[in-house]
Amino acid sequence: MTITRGAVYHRPKSSDAYARDESTIHVRIRTARDDVERCTLLWGDKYAWAETATLTPMTRVGHDERHDYWQVAVEPPYRRLCYAVRIEDAEERLWLTEYGLEDGSTEGPSRGDHETVHFFEYPFLNPVDVNRPPEWANDAVFYQIFPERFANANADLDPEGVEEWGEPPTRDNFFGGDLQGITENLEYIDDLGITALYLTPVFESTSNHKYNTTDYYRIDPQFGDEDDLQELVEEAHDRGIRVMLDAVFNHAGRQFEPFQDVVEHGEDSEYADWFHVHEFPIEFEPRPTYDAFAFEPYMPKLNTEHPEVKAYFIDVATHWIEVADIDGWRLDVANEVDHQFWRELRQAVKELKPDAYILGEIWHDSRAWLRGDQFDSVMNYPFSYATYDFLATDDIDAETFAEKQTKFQFRYPEQVTEVLFNLLSSHDTPRMRHRCDGDEDRLRLAFLLQLTSPGTPCVYYGDEIGMTGGHDPDCRRTMVWDEAEQNRKLRAYVADLISLRHEEPALRRGYRRFRYDLCDGDGVVYQRTLEDGSVAAEATDETETLTVAINRGEDTLRVPFPGSDTECLFAGGDVTRDDGTWTVGEMSGAVWRHLE
């Protein structure tokens, strides 16, 4: 059989060829599954080809349902990379260059009148172009808080008609949660092992969710004031906990003063171009005569291409870093805002606080935003939905789950994958326990998966004590503070997993490879490895491999470790050992360290 040419794919200067750091370039290629025996990178410096040309084998690092994925890391001596890929099976050899595929019977592709003509290029590794998410994000475990529902510490701030804590949430009711309530419960958060907070919007707004902002420079009086935010951030920082706020720059609230001016003065308003108005006068029904988030009349969309709008909101982003020393922004509806606005916002934020974490709310493939010029990360809902399909509904088997995760892993450079925002629940989704129909065993396996996978995990407030809730607004119930009503065993389980993640560099920075031979039916097995010579291994002075196994089924999952002794670091459920093989029982999971 010949090599399947239509399946061979590589795109230079993308997630297929990117700078991992200031000296290393990763090159990736995709081929048809089980179609190719070897891929080899021919590379060197185009101006010093004779002395630098090198052949380096590529590693098959994973597959999905249709493709194999290959990768290699190289360090071009002069920061210029010129390369081609040799692809081989038992009967055929091909060369892949930017001109396509050609016969591989020679030692290199045909070169015409120049020895590297047709080759792919990474023209120069400019340090400023390296995608560098903040270092602390690799190590963080986030805790998402919906401030109105977390804790009510100051009844004097309660809005009119506040309801009794614990009553069912609706789209419009209030319970009086405030910033002081978060500050007073930092010990609880710290004790869980959390190292970063994500707060949904805290600025003045007429709603309980605060995504329709009235004043971006004022803390909502229901939550407190600027001093309360400063106190929260200071006390969190004293505990080693970072604080990220929610920025709603796609749209404002209907009561936002510039929009009210447009409502009143129409096209004569000095703010008329701050919004996308189709016709005057402004009409709200049946559909607004202006662009709005999801056609909601109370959320008019902002024109972020307008110079005044751009300057206003970039100033908002830097203002709260200067005033309160926050550590990052989560950007609401980030995919509907123009790219240039995000580029300029990133530049301003990073100049002020280089290690600020910029997180976009995007629910789909986000490569266009993760090139190093806009966001550090996105909310990783593809991870969430694959987890739901495998652990909550059994819609996919273990092999399909592993293949989906591999495909997602190759969407982005490794340094981006390491900080993707992995969540099981949020204020926008049913809680994980609800998705699992209340099955605590499945919820535990989901936590095990989340806290041992590549990316930055985020626990939604109350999930750790077994809170449940369906679609919004039910997922926004008030936090349960009565320990008699909390699932303390589940909380201890989550705390143990968080502690393990903090203790093991491989769980935070290790490359993930699935044990496809063991991913069958109900059992998923994967390894997290800090590889010798990798940036992560050098940073931690450790090189190690951990294996994670998750069994959702009734049959025992057997995990052999031929030629390697092991230490069980975490066992959730029925986990036993028989010589060189570990068995993982029904609805159980484990983490092992490979010993020399």
Question: Which descriptors apply to this entry?
Answer:
single chain, 596 residues, alpha+beta, Immunoglobulin-like, TIM Barrel, Oligo-1,6-glucosidase, domain 2, 4 domains, eight-stranded parallel beta sheet, 16 helices, 24% strand, globular
Short description:
This protein has an eight-stranded parallel sheet. A hairpin with an 8-residue loop joins strand 21 and strand 22.
Could you describe the 3D structure shown?
By secondary structure, the chain is an alpha+beta fold. It folds into four domains: 125 residues, Immunoglobulins (Immunoglobulin-like, Sandwich), CATH 2.60.40.10; 316 residues, TIM Barrel (Alpha-Beta Barrel), CATH 3.20.20; 53 residues, Oligo-1,6-glucosidase, domain 2 (Alpha-Beta Complex), CATH 3.90.400; 88 residues, Immunoglobulin-like, CATH 2.60.40. The protein is 25% helix and 24% strand. It has 16 helices and 28 strands. The strands form six sheets. Strands 18-17-16-15-12-11-20-19 form an eight-stranded parallel beta sheet. β13 and β14 form a beta hairpin. α7 runs parallel beside α8. The chain is globular.
Binned strand content: 15-25%
Q: Would you tell me the overall average pLDDT?
A: 94
What sort of overall outline do the alpha carbons produce when their principal axes are compared? globular
**Helical amount:** 10-25%
CATH topology of the largest domain: TIM Barrel
Specify Rg, calculated over alpha carbons: 26 Å
Which stretches are low in confidence, meaning pLDDT under 50 for 5 or more residues running? 533-540
- Pairing-aware structural class of the strands and helices? alpha+beta
Spatial strand arrangement across the major sheet: 18-17-16-15-12-11-20-19
Q: Please give the domain count.
A: 4
